[in-house]
Write a structure and sequence with these properties.
About 45% of the residues lie in helices and about 15% in strands. It is α/β, with parallel strands linked by helices. The chain folds into two domains: about 150 residues, Alpha-Beta Complex (Aspartate Aminotransferase, domain 1), CATH 3.90.1150.10; about 240 residues, Aspartate Aminotransferase, domain 2, CATH 3.40.640.10. α9 links the parallel β7 and β8. α4 crosses α11, α5 crosses α10 and α7 packs parallel to α8. It is globular, with a radius of gyration of 22 Å.
């Protein structure tokens, strides 16, 4: 009998870490808990009737094709529809630039597999999407965090990070950004900073990885051009998904990349799963062909826009002085910042006891910072639950503030 099974793991496997969000979600699913933890869409937005009709049509008319293996690149009708959808912002997008993936997380893994060797350096935001950190960490990347503010990644600090990498003789493999309603902060990068980011990417010859799951979920204000639409040197790779626009159970997402990079990505995907499911691909392709997506997006915008408004008003009503939060105009998340002497990590089990859940902000920092921050989701809970849940959170914060004050006063 083998005594030490871990002796057989690869260095990459030993370097992998469990998703902190996935682990926290296990606690958040306890009965009676109002969860702001996961990035779950509201199930009432799922277009069940339309998908049922299309599924029956597919099985009747294209059963043999839709239930068979498909090409690694993805089903041609879906790639063509996605290229058409993305061409609203940049006319040069072709089906050849699209690779279908099983969720955006697979897209992150494919890009990492193609671009990263152990020790390679990349730029990420502070904070940034934890799934991205998890994918990059699995390939043992060296992540350089660049702080952001209400206008997105600070490009002056990005420029310093790029310059420092050059002076240290390190080649950066890519800059990873979630520019629209960022996960976790909800912040949208300004047009001026998008242009400057591209200018720096060109100057330092670094690809840009634009992760864009929330772009179409804007509830107020004017849209800002996508980074890829501003790119005139084929230096931007885009990750897109239907998980937030249709339903996550379909697991349909895509990579848009210059043709020169696409070949290696296709080879990388072949080694993972050969191809994405043909049935769900053709299901989504027909949904898009029928022109149903704009109406679906409008339905989501109205529902989530109301929920965001309810959460912002609840935060104003209940939160104690000293607590700050972002005020996004779209997406699924808000970012909450506690006073520096408070720890969202320490308060999490107390929040669970009070039947409310969030995600600790340190999970979104490549450098372990953000102990006093948290991400809260407003798309899944009902409007009533949002109000009650924020009130419960505020009660937890107020009690902790009072305890900290009493400890300070009683200290010699």
């Amino acid at each position: 009998m083998i005594e030490d099974l871990t002796a057989f793991y690869s260095k990459a496997a030993l370097n992998m870490k469990r998703s902190e969000i996935r682990e926290l979600l296990k606690l958040a699913r306890r009965p009676g808990i109002i969860s702001f933890a996961g990035g779950l869409p509201d199930p009432q937005t799922f277009p069940v009737n339309e998908l049922e009709d299309i599924a029956c049509h597919l099985l009747q008319e294209k059963g043999a094709t839709s239930l068979q293996y498909g090409p690694t690149e993805g089903e041609t009708p879906l790639r063509a529809e996605i290229a058409k959808w993305m061409s609203r912002e940049k006319a040069a997008i072709k089906p050849e630039n699209i690779l279908i993936t099983v969720g955006s997380q697979q897209g992150l893994d494919i890009v990492s597999k193609v671009f990263l060797d152990p020790g390679d350096s990349i730029i990420v935001g502070l904070p940034t999407y934890v799934g991205g950190l998890q994918a990059f960490n699995a390939y043992r990347a060296r992540m350089i965090g660049v702080p952001q503010d209400d206008a997105g990644m600070k490009v002056d600090l990005l420029e310093k990070a790029l310059a420092n990498s050059v002076s240290e003789g390190r080649k950066l493999k890519f800059i990873y950004v979630v520019p629209d309603f960022q996960n976790p902060s909800g912040v949208t990068m300004s047009l001026q900073r998008r242009k400057k980011l591209l200018e720096l990417a060109y100057q330092y010859e670094v690809p840009v990885l634009e992760d864009s799951p929330y772009r179409d979920l804007r509830y107020a204000g004017k849209s800002v051009p996508a980074i890829y639409s501003l790119d005139n040197q084929d230096q931007v790779i885009v990750l897109g998904t239907f998980s937030k626009l249709l339903c996550p159970g379909l697991r349909i997402a895509w990579i848009m990349a210059p043709a020169e990079w696409m070949d290696r990505m296709v080879v990388a995907k072949q080694g993972m799963d050969l191809c994405s499911p043909s049935f769900t691909q053709l299901l989504v392709a027909e949904y898009l062909r029928r022109g149903l997506l704009p109406r679906q997006i409008e339905k989501i915008r109205k529902l989530y826009g109301r929920k965001l408004d309810v959460m912002l008003k609840a935060l104003d009503r209940y939160m104690p002085k000293g607590v700050k939060w972002s005020k996004p105009k779209g997406g699924l998340f808000l970012w909450v910042e506690l006073p520096k002497n408070m720890s969202a990590n320490t308060l999490f089990p107390i929040a669970i006891q009070n039947k409310v859940a969030y995600v600790i902000g340190s999970a979104f920092h490549c450098n372990g910072e953000g102990q006093n921050t948290m991400r809260v989701n407003f798309s899944y809970a009902s409007e009533r639950q949002i109000d009650v849940g924020i009130q419960r959170l505020a009660t937890v914060f107020k009690k902790n503030m009072q305890q900290l004050t009493e400890t300070t006063i009683s200290s010699p």
